Task: structure prediction
Amino acid sequence: MKCLHWYIFLMSALLPLMSIAGNGVPKKSVILDGLDVDSMRVRLDELDMQPLEGIWYYPNEEMTLGIERYRGQHNIGYRIILLDSPDINLVPGTVIGYIASSAVDNKYQLWLYSQRDRVTLIKPLECVATLNAQATTFTFDPPRWKVKVRVNLARFLPSLFRGVSIVPEVTGERLPIGFRKIYPEGGDGAPFNRIRYL
Result:
């Protein structure tokens, strides 16, 4: 019986780690050598680009990013690469996140690394992102939870802790943050995956 308790404890401790590893997103970022805005533009020009692919600007972090196709595990089909940033501690070519398709055409699973460990990034956080119809904006609303503790003071002291509940509560609505496409320019009516004549 004691072994069963240890097994349940061990599985409950490992389950969050298994879910992070199980989604196919690497636990820490990698750095792709020699990638900047110009070299990314050349890479993209050689591809039959998908609407999500391109060079994007992330105004909240003042970063220029590249999104390109990537053959990852499970359903991960894109990676997000840092091309330029005012933060000198971030190396151009650092993969800062991954994207997976969903059953809804314009909705994606997005993972962005949330913490820095020396020169690499760690702890990918997941949220849902939306690509607009013109493929010019890619927005997401990261989860923002606060903890609300409720105490039922009508109970006697010995059972006070049975009268305490912790309830997650979503904070007030805010505008979503996201990326704005800067290359190739969208919104000109030219569909992707077709020849665009100048």
Observations:
- The helical segments are 2-22, 37-45.
- The radius of gyration is 22 Å.
- The chain is about 15% helix and 40% strand.
